[in-house]
């Protein structure tokens, strides 16, 4: 979207974002039919944040501070803990 908006393509950028958000929600709804909502949401939010930060850093040349890197690391740790908790819960059943 940032590239399209910078090229004065606001409408195209907005349509692209709307399509991508719609696809993300469709994927999330499909995921929640197979795994618990808490787990699906943790992955969706956490991995989305990590991917957006990574793309911004690598492709758009945006800076990431030490604090932001620490926050991304905490997000990864949180995703791992939620996933391991879900796996332990599944083993008990």
From TrEMBL:
Q: What is its main location?
A: membrane
InterPro entries for the chain: EmrE-like, Small_drug/metabolite_transptr, Small_multidrug_res
Bilayer topology annotation: Multi-pass membrane protein
A GO cellular-component term linked to this record: plasma membrane
Please state where this protein is localized: Cell inner membrane; Cell membrane
Which UniProt keyword terms apply here? Cell inner membrane, Cell membrane, Membrane, Transmembrane, Transmembrane helix
UniProt record, GO biological process:
glycine betaine transport; spermidine transmembrane transport
Q: From what superkingdom does this record's organism come?
A: Bacteria
Q: Cite the GO molecular-function annotations of the record.
A: amino-acid betaine transmembrane transporter activity; antiporter activity; choline transmembrane transporter activity
Name residues in a coiled coil: none
Chain ranges passing through the membrane: 12-28, 35-60, 66-85
PANTHER family under this entry? Answer: SMR FAMILY PROTON-DEPENDENT DRUG EFFLUX TRANSPORTER SUGE, SPERMIDINE EXPORT PROTEIN MDTJ
Give the protein family: Belongs to the drug/metabolite transporter (DMT) superfamily. Small multidrug resistance (SMR) (TC 2.A.7.1) family.
What interactions and quaternary structure are annotated? Forms a complex with MdtI.
Protein name in the entry: Spermidine export protein MdtJ
Organism the protein comes from: Pseudoalteromonas nigrifaciens
């Amino acid at each position: 979207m940032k590239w399209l908006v910078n090229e004065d393509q606001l409408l195209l950028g907005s349509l692209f974002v709307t399509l991508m958000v719609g696809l993300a929600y469709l994927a999330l709804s499909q995921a929640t039919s197979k795994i618990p909502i808490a787990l699906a949401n943790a992955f969706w939010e956490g991995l989305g944040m990590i991917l957006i930060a990574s793309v911004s850093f690598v492709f758009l040349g945006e800076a990431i501070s030490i604090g932001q890197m620490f926050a991304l690391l905490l997000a990864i740790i949180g995703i791992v803990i939620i996933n391991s908790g879900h796996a332990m819960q599944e083993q008990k059943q």
